[in-house]
Amino acid sequence: MPSDLKEGRIVVVGASLAGLRAAEALREEGFTGELTVVGDEPHAPYDRPPLSKQVLLGQATAYTTELPLRRDPDAEWRFGVRATGVDLLAKQVLLEDGESLPYDRLLIATGTRARPWPDPDEAALDGVFTLRTREDGAGLAERLAAGPERVLVIGGGFTGSEIASACREMGLQVTVAERGPAPLVGALGATLSKLAAVMQRNHGVDLRTGVTVTALTGNGAFTGAELSDGSRVHADVCVVALGALRNVEWLADSGLAAGPRGIACDAGCRAFTMYGIVTDDIFVAGDVSRFPHPLFGYQMLSLEHWGNAVEQAEVAAHNMVSPGALQRPHLSIPTFWSTQFGLNIKSVGVPTYSDHIVIAQGSLEARRLAMVYGYQGRVTAAVTVDMAKSLDYYRHLIETAAPFPPPPGAADRAIAADITIPSAVPDPSGLSHGPTVALTGHLPDRRLTVV
């Protein structure tokens, strides 16, 4: 490694939101060496959230969502090339075309991909889609614009719910099949998910909960699905929204702590080896990372959030070119937003890290509220529905480890909100999709089982 951290060779694997922002931040931090960014997709980094919203509604095309450059990172871009491994001893990234890229420091930002339908033959039926890439968005938007008779969405997480919302906005008939008791239950817990279920049904969604899809049917083209309760859904388009898989398989022989829940790193984004030893030349950022957070019991967090990818990339870039004493931790509080069925849902903190909730403002009946989540007497999260202005107040409560239930302050009611109910966060194995925030240790209101 060069004596000056601002020089040498840095390789970024993942031409993603995190990869792009890290490349820009490295130059802002004064890095003057060689910078190479490797991406397996054939185009420049683009924004994914519009794919399930504006692109499906025809307000934008899948090919106009390219991320703007904040500055020219003066990088060598290697698009359409897949990384196949890392040699920690030789300090090289191995590429599928047989080439190897030497590095002094490496940033892994390979993100996630859509979880595919488990039966490859059924997944290959014409009319069956996942939604993750630009090509996915373009193909699905074209099919929806053609006016199918019915769309089946498998999975009631944020992506599945946003797709169903877009379909209803376009006047399309839509069925949502969710294995759990309600849509969004894995992310928001039982109480708010009931509101989500009411909103879907009020907007004309044929919502089926507590069921799984056992088979997709069709002869070349998708015609419908069979459900675990014995019923059938006739549809001509199917969107598989079963959550995400982390892109870690290429690291299987690397010796890094990479697994189904991501790559483990410390709060400074430095990757761990499989033996729990921290590396000083390999960093991780974005959806593929698992990192400890002091506000959530130092449990390892996995986040699939836009804001986290940006903030973590900037911390990783800073630490890659800074000596140990000047390195800083990634401690930002997770935030997330979603617009669906006329509701603006915003979240701060980790709702799944909770044992009780309280409605601090508004009401479920009014469909405008702020719900605060607590764990062992401390505020750990808040979710607002059409009340986003209150979110900063609750963020402050989380950052200062304020007592739960929270004192009146942002509240629009005269009395303190002291009627708490269990948060009822489900076990993720009971869902057809994972939450966008996962505590990769254990759920706090469940005992660890020692096998």
UniProtKB/TrEMBL annotation:
Organism annotation: Streptomyces filipinensis
GO terms for cellular component: cytoplasm
CC cofactor: FAD
Occurrences of domain FAD/NAD(P)-binding (ranges): 9-313
Stretches that traverse the bilayer: none
Protein name as catalogued: Pyridine nucleotide-disulfide oxidoreductase
Keywords assigned: FAD, Flavoprotein, Oxidoreductase
Keyword Oxidoreductase: yes
GO molecular-function terms, A-Z: oxidoreductase activity, acting on NAD(P)H
Gene3D superfamilies assigned to the protein according to its UniProt record, in alphabetical order: 3.30.390.30, FAD/NAD(P)-binding domain (3.50.50.60)
